[in-house]
Amino acid sequence: MTRRIARRPLIAGLLAGVAAPRIASAQQIAGGRNIRIVVPFGAGGAVDIVGRLVAQELQGRLGQTVVVENRTGGGANIAMEHVVRATPDGTTLLMGSPSAVTNRHLYKNLNYDPSQLAPVFLVGEIPSAMVSAPGFEAVDGADFVAKARARPGHYTFGSGGSGTTEHLAGELLKLRAGLDLVHVPYRGGAAAMTDIAAGRVSMMFTNLAQALPLIEGGQLKALGVADSVRHPALPDVKTFAEMGVQDLNVTVWWGLMGPPGMPGEVVQRINTVLNQALNEPAMREALTRMRAKPIGGTVESFAQRLAADDRAWGEVIRGANITVN
Length: 325
What we know:
By secondary structure, this protein is an alpha/beta fold. The chain has 11 helices and 10 strands. Strands 1, 2, 3, 4, 5, 6, 7, 8, 9 and 10 form a 10-stranded mixed sheet that branches.
């Protein structure tokens, strides 16, 4: 049995001490009206936690109310469409993640264009890892690749649903290593990890914010890290590049985005405020407690990251012929 992660205490612990002092109302945006940060996923997940960190910082530093609204469903499309169509005055923002890039390649009949979302601030990122049950027969990622090559179609990989980063990471492994694996989608990553831990599915990729408590508790085994360097929380777990599988880098990022047409000065104001927050210990420490890497930077650097991810994941999705209805 996997251990349930106590989400609410985790959120409270991460938010403790993060709020910044209020500043002059002359520096507020949209005349001081309430700001909503729309989160496409449920409360307690990594995207939600980061959204609440950002909301708390913005509220303290702008001196105006910032609330988090969870608009779930549709593979994040419900929330993203809502933000794309919102008034572009800075009062409706999105806590975006890789679905803001991948969904336009995955869904063929969208009523909106996710690429219209305006980049505002790249908060941070965390790598993914391949995990299995502790007693799974593969010692590490290289051993799994060798066994999977010897038995095409025998091994399975789980995910929180078709089109998720977990699914795309498995498809990327298939492409990079030339494997024949069977995808087993679930309704959410927690359900997938439950069956992974029980040994009903061979392995899955998931971000370390979700997996580390279970790895550290002995319910899951880490087979490899999908990043260019080893993660400090798992110093003995090799990267896939070290194990002979190149270009298997899967990081989950979190970034604040807005509707198209937001005034440049509003975008820049929010970006500046959040860079100030990220340059102080409280918010950086909150992210590192999640085992995430704080990033920050300019609006332009975030836009470049989105463009690079769009090219990379678009290639994977087309190569694996993945579509989501």
